[in-house]
Amino acid sequence: MKLGPFVAHPGGEGNLGKRASAQTPRSLSKNSPNRQVLTAKMGRLYRLRQRRGASVVEFAIVAPVFIMLVFGMIEYGRMVMVQQVITNASREGARRAIVDGATTSEIQTLVKDYLQGGAMKTTSLTVVVTPNPPSSAKSGDPVTVRLEMPFKDVSWLPGQWFLGSQQLKAETTMRRESVN
Questions:
Q1: Which candidate, 84, 88, 95, places its Cα nearest to that of 129?
Q2: 152 class by beta-carbon count within 10 Å (0-12 exposed, 13-18 middle, 19+ buried)
Q3: Most buried residue among 81, 104, 111, 160 by CB atoms closer than 10 A?
Q4: Measured between alpha carbons, how far is 108 from 129 in angstroms, rounded to an integer?
Q5: What pLDDT does residue 171 have?
């Protein structure tokens, strides 16, 4: 069906080609079906523009919450990883502490080197070996290596947003091995 310069489809809405885009609803006759189609499309466009403002407001409300959730997940993941590395470092220290000839300073150096290999600062790390020195324990007695480190020293986020005030702790106890 052909209506002047416009082509109407059987579905009802007209195909408003290049020529129609230059026209406004006022320039078409009142009874023209193309005017109704053009008016309906402009109404949808107007409602879409109004909706775009609502989308901006919704994004402004949701974005900070979403960003905080993402950073919180990253921070908790980092905490779990660091806790695992600290636990492994205490195990390595305890393994060294149970053999003959181990000294407390040697164990502390071993633990700090292990943590620095994991790209962690060891400036505020506390390493406690019980008994001190570990060679004073008899065969079969427990030897404990305990580590404490503030999470703020290994956090990727500045300040104490999520877990900055947490102390990460790990303790490993093994039986002393020595020749009687």
A1: 95
A2: middle
A3: 111
A4: 8
A5: 94
